[in-house]
Specification:
By secondary structure, the protein is an alpha/beta fold. Helices cover 53% and strands 11% of the residues. It has twelve helices and seven strands. It has helices spanning 2-6, 11-43, 61-85, 98-101, 114-125, 137-149, 164-178, 201-229, 249-269, 287-294, 299-309, 318-329; strands at residues 104-109, 128-134, 154-158, 183-186, 232-236, 275-281, 340-343. The longest helix is centred in the N-terminal third of the chain and has 33 residues, at 11-43. Bound molecules: nicotinamide-adenine-dinucleotide. Nicotinamide-adenine-dinucleotide binds at residues 109-110, 112-116, 134-136, 159-162, 187-191, 210, 236, 238, 281, 283-284, 286-289.
Amino acid sequence: MARLIAAGHGSYHTEKRRDFMMRRPFSIMFELLLALGGFLTLCSVNIPGVAQTAPASGPLRPLKSIYQIYYSGVRATNRGAHKAYGGLGSLYPKDRSLMEQSSKAAFITGAAYGIGRATAHCFVREGYAVTLADIDEGRGKALEAELRKHGAGALFVHTDVRGEAGVRDSIERAVTEWGRLDALVNNAGIEVYRRADEFTSEDWSAMVDTDLRGPFLCTKYAFPALRERKGSVTNIASVQGLACEPNIAVYAAAKAGLLALTRGTALDFAPYGVRVNAVCPGAIQTGMMESYLAMQSDPTATISGMAKSIPLGRVGEPEDIARVVLFLASDAAAYITGATIVVDGGLLARLAL
Ligand SMILES: NC(=O)c1ccc[n+]([C@@H]2O[C@H](COP(=O)([O-])OP(=O)(O)OC[C@H]3O[C@@H](n4cnc5c(N)ncnc54)[C@H](O)[C@@H]3O)[C@@H](O)[C@H]2O)c1
């Protein structure tokens, strides 16, 4: 924690910590008293009947009432916090302490825009400190500033996932900054559309290096820190890695490779408690989609045609993917590894005959 404060994320954290340290002894004493009350109450009844069969009267009855009121209050607070965050069950109230706020750390590649950006927001809402790794310095720094303004732990590191030394240094920097690494999200990706024979070997290198070698490098250098926390890796692949449209063979090959890399790495890391999964987005409104639409003669018609071909009737939002990534990194997914989760509004479920 000292390291986090030394990292200098402003007086917000220092203040929160002071506040937390001052309130904590009282809160601990209060909770101990209540726990004692609960314990005595439960001891007074015939286990396994516990609370339901507690005596309606007797000297311990008032303690039981306090105990029950307290815990129904805790449950209500948790439900409220869950609603406020709109996420996957955060049990923390909005003014989290520094300790809670920086309790986990995630490294997200391609975090400056699109799915990566939405993922960073989602993780921050769930209490993670995030490292935003991207080649887009302008958007990356702007996101870092925006997240910090809201009191979140955020660090932008200029990272090109194609470069081994840069990847290693960025991960090292993130681990030094947060003191840990719980989740790696390999999201950075590019696509180029051409007929199979028209791709150049530069196209091949650009896509394979970004979409496949990048996740390999990040995973390789993140593993020692992930192993310490029994963390997770989530690779953002694509439906194109499972079934593909014309003019995208090289991207499809890179993403299919990423799915194979996911399964193989999951097997190798399982003995260390590190889970590795892949998410296959369908058509999602991001920078990648903007570039695709810019190539179309009628972008509005293209997007409404896409929406019609998707069983759920709409193109996906980056948050549709981010929520699944957050789930895969969470303890709720503790028994999921080597899996490919398709998040496409039903696109792949339909046979286009
Ligand atoms: N948008 C879709 O419809 C869709 C569908 C399937 C899969 N995906 C996958 O989702 C992931 C995210 O894409 P998106 O749609 O959010 O695209 P996007 O273009 O909006 O965002 C991609 C981000 O990756 C960064 N990036 C690109 N090359 C990089 C590199 N070498 N090193 C570091 N960062 C780099 C970009 O600067 C950008 O911030 C990609 O892996 C993509 O293949 C997207």
